[in-house]
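Milestone 3.1: sequence recovery, worked example.
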C-alpha cells in the first residue's frame, strides 16, 4: 500500500499544481487580453471557480473554490481540490485538500499572469485501494506528512492562462495540463 499510495499522491500533486496554475492564471490572462499590464477594473471582485479535468493518465483533478482579485494587483484564493484515479486493480483512490493561497496578478495581452506568494494546503480526506483512511494516520504510518500542493509551489512562481471567454458575470480560462492538453477553468462572479 505504501508505494501505491506515494505514487498516487505524487500524481495527485502534479494534477493539483495544474489546477492551481489555472486558477491563479485567470487574472493574469484577463489583463493580458484586456489591459495594458495593469489591473482591469472589470475583473476586480470575487469569483466562484470550478474546474474538472481528466489527464491522459486517467487522473481526474477537480477544484471548487473562490478567488478575490483586488485593484492593487493582489489576490486571495481558497477552495477544495481533489485528485481521483484507479489503481492497477481498478480500485478507486482519491485525496482531497483544502487550499489557500495569495499573491499578485496582472493582465498582459491575452494572458492573465499570477504569482504565488503564500500557499497553504491540508489533506482532509483520503481513499486508497477503495478504502477511506485518515490522512493523519497514513502520514504517521509513512513516517512523513502526505505530500501537498503547498510543498510543490515555490513562492514567486508565476503562472499564465489564456482567456477563452469573459463577460461581466462569467469567464472561461484555458490552461494546459502537464502533458500539454488544454482544459477549462470556469468562473462566475459572486
Amino acid at each position: 500500500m505504501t508505494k501505491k499510495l506515494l505514487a498516487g499522491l505524487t500524481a495527485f500533486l502534479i494534477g493539483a499544481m495544474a489546477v492551481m496554475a489555472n486558477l491563479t492564471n485567470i487574472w493574469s490572462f484577463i489583463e493580458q487580453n484586456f489591459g495594458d499590464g495593469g489591473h482591469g477594473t472589470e475583473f476586480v471582485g470575487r469569483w466562484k471557480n470550478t474546474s474538472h479535468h481528466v489527464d491522459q493518465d486517467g487522473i481526474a483533478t477537480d477544484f471548487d473554490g473562490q478567488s478575490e482579485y483586488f485593484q492593487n494587483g493582489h489576490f486571495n484564493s481558497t477552495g477544495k481540490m481533489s485528485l481521483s484515479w484507479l489503481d492497477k486493480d481498478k480500485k478507486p483512490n482519491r485525496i482531497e485538500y483544502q487550499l489557500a493561497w495569495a499573491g499578485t496578478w496582472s493582465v498582459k495581452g491575452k494572458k492573465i499572469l499570477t504569482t504565488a506568494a503564500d500557499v497553504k494546503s491540508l489533506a482532509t480526506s483520503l481513499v486508497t485501494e477503495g478504502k477511506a483512511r485518515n490522512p493523519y494516520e497514513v502520514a504517521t504510518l509513512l513516517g512523513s506528512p502526505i505530500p501537498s500542493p503547498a510543498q510543490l509551489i515555490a513562492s514567486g512562481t508565476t503562472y499564465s492562462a489564456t482567456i477563452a471567454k469573459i463577460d461581466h458575470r462569467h469567464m472561461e480560462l484555458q490552461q494546459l495540463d502537464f502533458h500539454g492538453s488544454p482544459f477549462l477553468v470556469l468562473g462566475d462572479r459572486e
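The first helix runs from residue 2 to 34. Residues 27-37 have pLDDT under 50 and may be disordered.
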